[in-house]
Design a protein that fits this description.
Blueprint (H helix, E strand, L loop, with lengths): L1 H8 L6 H4 L20 E11 L5 E3 L1 E4 L9 E2 L2 E3 L6 H13 L7 E5 L3 E3 L4 E10 L12 E5 L3 H5 L4 E8 L2 E10 L2 E3 L1 H13 L15
Parallel strand pairs: 1-8
Antiparallel strand pairs: 1-2, 1-5, 3-4, 3-9, 6-8, 7-8, 10-11, 11-12
């Protein structure tokens, strides 16, 4: 898998067209008059490891109840600190949130940055690989639990459902990966969509797919 990802990441990324396959059906633009200088940069680590039978899995976190957006699924990650690269920030946050040790972690490369206007962040996803399942532990107060779905599970058409959620007076429709008793949607699902597109995935059933450059 590491060699496959390294080769895929050397080609042009699928980008927003792939992210959009799992995007909520709502406007994602910055508000009128928003100053781009106020964008906060965050980095997330998409950890890919070889699990049972050498099947590749990814590491995701379920946010703790005390945090904003409790129960949502995200990549290990957080705000980029002054002087850090996106890769350094992603690795640091993964160590703080899930106890990921640096030994054996290989950075494969970045995915397309994703703007999250509702929170004012620009997320920089970084893909990293491990040859075996890492020892992980959820950080108290930050991570309620860690889930490790396989890539085969994510690519299965049966795991994707359309859901509806209310935000203010508006109902938001969105596709979600429903796995491991978790609802994976929004920015995390969009990052996973681009990642899966690198491996040939064409999106949810009934979608129009996309064309890579």
């Amino acid at each position: 898998m590491a060699a496959v990802l390294a080769e895929a990441l050397r080609r042009p990324l699928p980008g927003p067209a792939a992210q959009a396959l799992m995007a909520p059906r709502l406007p994602r633009n910055w508000p009128d008059g928003f100053n781009p200088a106020r964008i906060r940069h965050a980095a997330g680590l998409l950890i890919v490891f070889a699990g049972e039978g050498r099947r590749p899995h990814v590491v995701l976190t379920v946010r703790a109840e005390a945090l904003r957006h409790p129960g949502q699924v995200s990549l290990p990650g957080g705000v980029v600190e002054p002087g850090e690269t996106f890769e350094q920030a992603a690795l640091r946050e993964a160590h703080e949130e899930v106890g990921l040790a640096g030994d054996g972690v290989a950075i494969a490369g970045p995915l397309t940055p994703l703007d999250i206007p509702v929170s004012g962040f620009r997320l920089h996803p970084i893909v990293a690989t491990l040859a075996s399942r890492p020892a992980l532990s959820a950080a108290d107060g930050e991570v309620a639990r860690i889930i490790t779905p396989s890539i085969d599970e994510l690519r299965a058409a049966s795991c994707i459902e359309w859901r509806t959620r209310t935000r203010g007076e508006h109902a938001i429709e969105f596709p979600a990966f429903m796995l491991h008793d978790a609802e994976i949607w929004g920015a995390t699902a969009m990052v996973l969509a681009e990642f899966l597109a690198l491996l040939g995935w064409k999106g949810p059933p009934g979608g129009a797919g996309f064309s890579r450059p």
